[in-house]
Amino acid sequence: MVRIDKEKCIGCGSCAAVCPAVFKMNEEIFKAEVIDIEATEPCVKEAIELCPTQAISGDE
């Protein structure tokens, strides 16, 4: 299950850039959102690694 900690998210957009099938930016709150919590795409791992605040977590 893919999750984003909204408190940690700074809205940099790196997750949505590398994995748009799983993440999108919410322009109203300037934070990322998960659009597929059951995603298993390899890009999820990349998004987790790229997140500067470590706001993304997922089952490995």
- Strand percentage: 15-25%
Number of domains: 1
Q: What shape does the CA trace take? A: globular
Q: Which second-level CATH architecture applies?
A: 2-Layer Sandwich
Helix content bin: 10-25%
Number of helices: 2
The count of β-strands is 4
Strand arrangement in the largest pleated sheet: 1-4
User: Would you tell me which CATH topology applies?
Assistant: Alpha-Beta Plaits
Structural class: alpha+beta
Sheet bearing the most strands, described? Answer: 2 strands, antiparallel
Radius of gyration: 10 Å
Q: Which stretches are low in confidence, meaning pLDDT under 50 for 5 or more residues running? A: none
| SSE ordering | EHEEHE
Output the CATH class name: Alpha Beta
Mean pLDDT: 95
Distance between the termini: 9 Å
Write the layout of secondary structure elements.
Elements: E1 3-4, H1 14-18, E2 23-26, E3 31-34, H2 42-50, E4 56-57
Antiparallel strand pairs: 1-4, 2-3
